Amino acid sequence: MACIEPNEEWTIETVTDARPNRPSTTQILVFCLSIDQGMITGEVADGVTGQVLSLVKGTRESLGRLGLDEASSLMTLNFSNGPARVMMSGVTFLRNFRGRFTSFVDAQVAAMGSVSEPGTASPFVPSDGDTGTGTGSQT
To answer: Across residues 38-42, what is the average pLDDT?
Structure first.
């Protein structure tokens, strides 16, 4: 998948946490993102097949206002991967991303109560959804 109009393309490898009787799995995701005044829109595709998985919404905030490196930011992405909804949040350092994700099915979202606006982290207790890490780079 090649980004045509979006202003940033990110390739991120996700690794799920291993569980009893369930090994860790990896997936390559390619994000084509448009970022306007910290608001993110775009789409995500499977990095192997190129098949678009879903639309993406999120936010990006500079960490400079916290006295940290101006080039670093907190990026939060909300999207779907099959039946699962995914919330991925992490820090970007120049062109690199490091973060965590949680995926859950819609029944788990309903159990959390109302869902906040994309990019706004809502505290919740993960249940049977996947959790893991994501690392990647802007391409």
So the answer is: 93
pLDDT of res. 119: 37
Vertex 22, ends 51 and 136: CA angle to 5°? 45
- 5-29 mean pLDDT: 86
Residues β-bridged to residue 46? 29
Burial string for 98-134 (b: 16+ CB within 10 Å, else e) reads ebebbbbeeebbeeeeeeeebbeeeebeeeebbebbb
Within a domain: 44: yes
Note down the domain range covering 19: 8-121+128-138
**Reported confidence tier of residue 98, pLDDT bands at 50, 70, 90:** confident
